[in-house]
């Protein structure tokens, strides 16, 4: 039996239980640079245990839809933010924790320019670009230890539009 998860548009409200949507939307907090720049302050709750924040660049292969979700992961010691370096939408899959394993996943497609920050220890699918190039700046924990917990599903889960 295949479990089907339908993709929904990403909104800050729908994603709030899992993390933050990072985007330039609504009223900026400040105009800076002599009025030449809208600044949107402090868009995400970063959290790192026994380590520090690092910025990495991910060049990820595109995923085709429908996509089989067989693995979810979480990072007990840190949040993880994905900031696209393009205007391409990407797939975001998260799930509530249910006694130490993921509950029913929720799938979103970002709007162009949106990034996400997974809060610490939130179950998520690994990075899944939908269009080339899959280039992202990633802000996550640099420190000792694996900071990784994985869960492989015993049944088929299909993510589709
Ligand atoms: N492994 C790694 O750095 N990336 C994953 O955590 C991911 O969420 O894509
Ligand atoms: Ni991750």
UniProtKB/TrEMBL annotation:
* Taxonomy, superkingdom: Bacteria
Keyword Hydrolase belongs to the record:
yes
> GO terms for biological process?
allantoin catabolic process; purine nucleobase metabolic process
UniProt GO MF annotations: ureidoglycolate hydrolase activity; ureidoglycolate lyase activity
Keyword rRNA-binding found:
no
Q: Which UniProt keywords apply?
A: Hydrolase, Lyase, Purine metabolism
Q: Which NCBIfam families match?
A: PRK13395.1 (NF009932)
Protein name as catalogued: Ureidoglycolate hydrolase
